Design the sequence.
């Protein structure tokens, strides 16, 4: 599930309403039949729909335009025109739609939920509606109303069981590729994953949980430096947080405190989540160094050691995550 797309912009257009009919009855035995024009049909809506089987916005990445059908015109015998067919945009749960001004149109919270993004134009009224005592045979009807159009921005806050929190180069991508089938790009540099990666982690007895490698935090992210809020937004929806501190860090506990502070600055509620502290790249340190690193942390925040490269400690880490999720 790599190449996770969390932002898509699409030009949407709902259908125009059909015109009302200005028909007058013309029947053999009713020489002066009155108006019998039907109403036009409503234009098709553009609708966002929650789909629990979608994990990413990737299917929409190359969609530039979405257009719903127009309503059919009204007809004689007071026949209402058919409604234009609605267009559905299937999105993962957790997707937010915004207009061009950045205002939220709606947020998908559950499977099957529908939100109308753009309403189809109303159908015009047929001439039957305009009959009066002074105008027995109105020869006019309303045109249909235009549909709406404009850009809609779709954003997805990742829905994952475990969110990986750490500076760039903390080993998050390596961990994800070690415990799941995700294939994130991995490199040894102090930059960051620009798009989040999701992986399904297999656990004992055919169980599994979802792990998200989200863009790496940079000190000052809460003030908008680096990827800033775009990163922090993702971790709001993770059930638990897994802090990754690399074994070759200069100060392990200090690095944890910096990460913790970023979350505190952005949204203090994030610190109410359960979390696990881990030391990645533990193949780089021996037993004596591990004791020294562990001693930096208070008793209630002792870290777990693992290596995504050798696989050492991964099962213990998965056990700890599972216990936090289901304990």
Sequence:
């Amino acid at each position: 599930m790599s190449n996770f797309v969390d932002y898509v912009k699409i030009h949407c257009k709902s259908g125009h309403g059909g015109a009302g009919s200005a028909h007058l009855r013309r029947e053999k035995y009713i020489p002066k039949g009155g108006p019998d024009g039907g109403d036009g049909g409503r234009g098709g809506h553009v609708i966002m729909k929650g789909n629990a089987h979608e994990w990413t916005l990737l299917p929409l990445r190359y969609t530039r335009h979405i257009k719903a059908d127009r309503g059919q015109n009204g007809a004689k015998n007071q026949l209402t025109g058919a409604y234009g067919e609605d267009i559905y945009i299937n999105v993962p749960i957790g997707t937010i739609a915004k207009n061009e001004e950045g205002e939220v149109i709606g947020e998908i919270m559950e499977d099957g939920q529908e939100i109308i993004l753009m309403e189809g134009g109303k159908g015009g009224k047929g001439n039957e509606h305009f009959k009066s005592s002074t105008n027995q045979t109105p020869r006019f009807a309303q045109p249909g109303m235009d549909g709406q159009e404009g850009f809609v921005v779709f954003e997805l806050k990742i829905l994952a069981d475990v969110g990986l929190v750490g500076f760039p180069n903390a080993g998050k991508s390596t961990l994800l590729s070690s415990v799941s089938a995700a294939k994130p790009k991995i490199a040894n540099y102090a930059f960051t994953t620009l798009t989040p990666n999701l992986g399904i982690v297999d656990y004992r007895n055919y169980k599994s949980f979802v792990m998200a490698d989200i863009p790496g935090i940079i000190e000052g992210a809460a003030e908008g430096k680096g990827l800033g809020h775009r990163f922090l937004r993702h971790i709001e929806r993770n059930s638990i947080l897994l802090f990754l501190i690399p074994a070759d860090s200069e100060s392990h506990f200090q690095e944890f405190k910096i990460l913790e502070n970023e979350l505190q600055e952005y949204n203090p509620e994030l610190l109410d989540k359960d979390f696990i502290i881990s030391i990645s790249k533990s193949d780089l340190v021996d037993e004596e160094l591990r004791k020294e690193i562990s001693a930096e942390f208070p008793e209630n925040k002792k870290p777990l050691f693992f290596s995504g490269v050798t696989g050492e400690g991964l099962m213990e880490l998965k056990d700890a995550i599972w216990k936090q999720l289901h304990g």
In short: Helices lie at 172-179, 228-235, 252-266, 287-295, 314-326.
